[in-house]
């Protein structure tokens, strides 16, 4: 009897997400290929089946699609018209372009959330100074202005205090998205996995903290989140995943407010706020994404311990990550370090640290120490959690880091 041929998953994009999908594919026994933007991209360093090419070129995409059974993504920057053409030609793309467009275009996303009756901040399309003046009259100054497509990690975002800044940006981008500047208490995120058969699995809601517009930490579950609010968030992300016919994993980022929450953005792929699941969950977001795009039964999203924490390693002033990495492995063998194979530059995500346990403050302090020691930084305490001095038992050495309060993120 002929053997069963396992499918091949093709990932567009060779970044760290594709790199971290590869071990999950190996564990599932499926084949894995990447269309990478360069031969030394993070995923291309660890995967043997790599095609180097331009993901904005349709001929390149089509040629890659012919070599795999299903296409998925490391990022959301593939031109949507190319994805529509691939689907029309009979190739399997998951998530499909009609779902992915709501992660690609923030204006379309805002409209859809309004249609679904889900909590949006006040927003408007801005195509002229008059539009900006009308919005400012409604919500006041400052407000937030975003490019509808292409922004991430704080890029493509400005806080507008002077309407003259709008005119300058409209000269570059003809239509912008304006949003009220939300007076939030903290930022939250939630991940959901959904398969073509409609099966879903949701991980706990996490608290996130941003440093200069880049995610620095995620804590699961979000400390002190009322059960009723957690349920409302879970119901909202399930509503979005079903209404948009999402396939794969999806992240929903939110602003928590005293009265509830407001949706910020979506990502229809593995996401930074879900990296804790690699080590802190029965099924990681990476395995779940592959299960979903292959329409396999989804795995359990249950946490392995009471608290899981992810702290990003953000590049600092030195390029040597290996020697401090060795120190961290010896100093705290229970933390898990994930490096991306990237060149180091200030503020760039070059890896992350995961830790889990029963004591949130101690788990967080350990993960921070590891991440910041590898990066080579020494900063002040997190503004909303105990200081390292509060966490250190009497007589023990204080080895935890200091972390600065970030600039407020819109």
UniProtKB/TrEMBL annotation:
<dbReference type="InterPro" id="IPR016185">
    <property type="entry name" value="PreATP-grasp_dom_sf"/>
</dbReference>
<dbReference type="GO" id="GO:0004638">
    <property type="term" value="F:phosphoribosylaminoimidazole carboxylase activity"/>
</dbReference>
<comment type="subunit">
    <text>Homodimer.</text>
</comment>
<dbReference type="GO" id="GO:0005524">
    <property type="term" value="F:ATP binding"/>
</dbReference>
<comment type="similarity">
    <text>Belongs to the PurK/PurT family.</text>
</comment>
<protein>
    <recommendedName>
        <fullName>N5-carboxyaminoimidazole ribonucleotide synthase</fullName>
        <ecNumber>6.3.4.18</ecNumber>
    </recommendedName>
</protein>
<keyword id="KW-0436">Ligase</keyword>
<comment type="function">
    <text>Catalyzes the ATP-dependent conversion of 5-aminoimidazole ribonucleotide (AIR) and HCO(3)(-) to N5-carboxyaminoimidazole ribonucleotide (N5-CAIR).</text>
</comment>
<dbReference type="InterPro" id="IPR011761">
    <property type="entry name" value="ATP-grasp"/>
</dbReference>
<dbReference type="GO" id="GO:0005829">
    <property type="term" value="C:cytosol"/>
</dbReference>
<dbReference type="Pfam" id="PF22660">
    <property type="entry name" value="RS_preATP-grasp-like"/>
</dbReference>
<dbReference type="InterPro" id="IPR013815">
    <property type="entry name" value="ATP_grasp_subdomain_1"/>
</dbReference>
<feature type="binding site">
    <location>
        <position position="146"/>
    </location>
    <ligand>
        <name>ATP</name>
    </ligand>
</feature>
<dbReference type="Pfam" id="PF17769">
    <property type="entry name" value="PurK_C"/>
</dbReference>
<dbReference type="Pfam" id="PF02222">
    <property type="entry name" value="ATP-grasp"/>
</dbReference>
<comment type="function">
    <text>Catalyzes the ATP-dependent conversion of 5-aminoimidazole ribonucleotide (AIR) and HCO(3)- to N5-carboxyaminoimidazole ribonucleotide (N5-CAIR).</text>
</comment>
<feature type="domain" description="ATP-grasp">
    <location>
        <begin position="110"/>
        <end position="294"/>
    </location>
</feature>
<dbReference type="GO" id="GO:0034028">
    <property type="term" value="F:5-(carboxyamino)imidazole ribonucleotide synthase activity"/>
</dbReference>
<feature type="region of interest" description="Disordered">
    <location>
        <begin position="377"/>
        <end position="410"/>
    </location>
</feature>
<comment type="pathway">
    <text>Purine metabolism; IMP biosynthesis via de novo pathway; 5-amino-1-(5-phospho-D-ribosyl)imidazole-4-carboxylate from 5-amino-1-(5-phospho-D-ribosyl)imidazole (N5-CAIR route): step 1/2.</text>
</comment>
<dbReference type="InterPro" id="IPR040686">
    <property type="entry name" value="PurK_C"/>
</dbReference>
<dbReference type="GO" id="GO:0006189">
    <property type="term" value="P:'de novo' IMP biosynthetic process"/>
</dbReference>
<feature type="binding site">
    <location>
        <position position="187"/>
    </location>
    <ligand>
        <name>ATP</name>
    </ligand>
</feature>
<feature type="binding site">
    <location>
        <begin position="264"/>
        <end position="265"/>
    </location>
    <ligand>
        <name>ATP</name>
    </ligand>
</feature>
<dbReference type="InterPro" id="IPR011054">
    <property type="entry name" value="Rudment_hybrid_motif"/>
</dbReference>
<keyword id="KW-0067">ATP-binding</keyword>
<dbReference type="GO" id="GO:0046872">
    <property type="term" value="F:metal ion binding"/>
</dbReference>
<feature type="binding site">
    <location>
        <position position="106"/>
    </location>
    <ligand>
        <name>ATP</name>
    </ligand>
</feature>
<dbReference type="InterPro" id="IPR005875">
    <property type="entry name" value="PurK"/>
</dbReference>
<keyword id="KW-0547">Nucleotide-binding</keyword>
<dbReference type="InterPro" id="IPR054350">
    <property type="entry name" value="PurT/PurK_preATP-grasp"/>
</dbReference>
<feature type="binding site">
    <location>
        <begin position="179"/>
        <end position="182"/>
    </location>
    <ligand>
        <name>ATP</name>
    </ligand>
</feature>
<keyword id="KW-0658">Purine biosynthesis</keyword>
<dbReference type="InterPro" id="IPR003135">
    <property type="entry name" value="ATP-grasp_carboxylate-amine"/>
</dbReference>
